[in-house]
Design brief:
Xyl_isomerase-like_sf, globular, binds the ligand O=C(O)[C@@H](O)C(=O)CO, TIM Barrel, Sugar_Epim/Isomerase, about 15% strand, alpha/beta, HyI-like, TIM barrel protein, binds magnesium ion
Amino acid sequence: MTTFSANLGFLWADLPLPDAIRAAKAAGFDAVECHWPYDTPAEHVAAALAETGLTMLGLNTLRGKAGENGLAALPDREPEARAEIDRAVDYARRIGCGSVHVMAGFAEGDQAHQTFLGNLDYACRAARPHGITILIEPLNRYDAPGYFLRTSDQAASIIAAIPHDNLALMFDCYHLQIMEGDLSRRLAAHREIIGHVQIASVPDRGTPDHGELDYRHIMAVLRDLGWERPLGAEYKPQQPTDQTLGWLPVLRSV
Ligand SMILES: O=C(O)[C@@H](O)C(=O)CO
Ligand SMILES: [Mg+2]
C-alpha cells in the first residue's frame, strides 16, 4: 500500500507547526515534512511528533535574503550557505528528521556549479554523523525562473560528482513533469539516487487527483521499482486543507 506524507509548508500552513502535525495525524497521513520550521522551537515540534507517532521526513535550508531561493550555488556566499546548512542539520537532528533539502538558489555557470559541489560536500560531511541524507531538488522554470538546479539529469551528474553516499535526489513529480515529462522513464533511470518523491497536480499544483499526471500510474511505476517510502503531498490547497483530502483514501486504495 502506498503511504503519504503531508507537506506542512503548504498543508495546514495556517496552523502553528505542532498543530499542523496533529492535524496531519488526525487526517490519516503516515508522515509529515516541512519547508522552514525554524520559527518554532525544535522541542515543540519534537513533542508533537512524539505525541502523534509521526516522523518528520524532511526540511529545507533557509532561502537567504528577500527574493533569494537558497544560497548553496551562489559564488562568494559560502559562509552564509554553510551556516544555514549547519542550522538545518542541527534542527533536523533535534527532531529526528532524516533529510535536509539544501536549496541551491538563483545562479548559473561553472562557478555556481563548483560552489554548489563544495557546499554539498560540506553538507554531506555535516549530516553524516547524524544519519541525515542531503537532498537536492530541481525546480521548474515558471515557479523559480533562474534557479540553478533544473533537471533530474543535472542533479544526477552533481550527485555522481560528490564522493558521499548521503546525497540524493528529491524527485518532485510536479516540477519534473513541467521541466522534462517522461516521468516513468525518469523515475526508473534515477531510481538508485532518489531520496524522496513529492506529488501535486500539473499544471496547477493542486490535489494529486486531477491534471495532466495520473498518479495511479506513477504509483504503480514506483511500486514496480520497489519504492516503499511515503509520497510527499506537496500541493497548494485552494480551500481549508481538511476540505481538500478526498484524494487521500482514493489514492491510498490504488
Ligand atoms: O517543490 C518545492 O517547492 C519544495 O519542495 C521546496 O522545497 C522548494 O521550495
Ligand atoms: Mg518539492
